[in-house]
Amino acid sequence: MALYAIGDLHLSLTANKSMEVFGPAWENYTARIGASLGQLTADDVLILAGDTSWGISLEEAEADFRFLDQFPCKKYLVKGNHDYWWSTASKMKSFFTEKGFTTLDVLHNNCAFYGDYALCGTRGWFLEEDQKPHNAKVLNREVGRLETSLKAAEGRPILCFLHYPPLYQGYECPEILRLLAAYPVERCCYGHLHGYAIKRRLEGERNGTAFSLISADYLGFVPKKICE
After folding, report:
1. Which of 3, 65, 206, 214 is the least buried, fewest Cβ under 10 Å from its Cβ?
2. pLDDT (tens digit, 9 = 90+) per residue, 203-213?
3. Distance, CA of 115 to CA of 99 (rounded, Å)
4. Which residues contact 228 (CB under 8 A, 6 or more apart)?
């Protein structure tokens, strides 16, 4: 039994937007993901930290969800910036139930529990969105969602999973970092960074929180073990 995490699977079994166009790092990535997930057991828990499917609706993403559901580990999905299929929690859960997906759930305005740990998360916020007119509104919304998730931990040790990195060489999101320090969060895993941007990741401990990049291509499509 162990807790794992990975982000940015970018599955595209229906949407026809294969990531293989981005070069050798993504070659045969769906099969590589399948081989890795096939090593996990029904006792394991997997956090999927955003950009799980290229589908633009729940229906278009169904084949990707079915691919994931064949592996018996419990999976919690966090929203990413390319998860256009994302809907309300109730609609997503109803869709999973309707389609018979028994291993999928969402981490959104809530938290889940793994042993003594609370698992919290949301999409987060990143610099590339900064010039859009709605930036303050979206930032405040994500900060609010994260705090709702953190509050739901009810004093348990917290592991946090974000899609966007809250810190990066030359950038940080102080609103997110303040929350991570205030609750406090033991570990924060994030995705979103690919290719050359991976070199600008920041990992290690800061203000009591340990940060880790878990983008799928960075991990070689093998989920990172967070704890037993």
Report:
1. 206
2. 999 999 999 99
3. 29
4. 1, 2, 3
pLDDT (tens digit, 9 = 90+) per residue, 133-163? 557 888 899 999 999 999 999 999 999 999 9
The structural domains of the chain, with segments of one domain joined by +, span 3-227
What are the backbone angles phi and psi of residue 209, rounded to the nearest 5°? Answer: -110, 130
Run of H or E including 228: none
Specify the pTM.
Answer: 0.95
Which CATH number fits the domain 3-227, given the four candidates 3.40.50.150, 3.90.930.12, 3.40.50.720, 3.60.21.10?
Answer: 3.60.21.10
Q: For residues 100 and 68, what is the distance between their CA atoms, to the nearest angstrom?
A: 12
> Look-up: residue for tokens 């399948």?
34
64 CB-side CA count, 13 A: 28
Quote the strand ranges of the chain, DSSP E: 3-6, 45-49, 74-78, 104-106, 111-114, 117-122, 158-162, 167-168, 171-172, 185-190, 204-206, 209-213, 224-227
> Which of 136, 145, 224, 143 is closest to 187 using CA atoms?
224
Determine if the peptide bond prior to 184 is cis (ω within 30°).
yes
Q: Which residue is associated with the tokens 């993901």?
A: 33
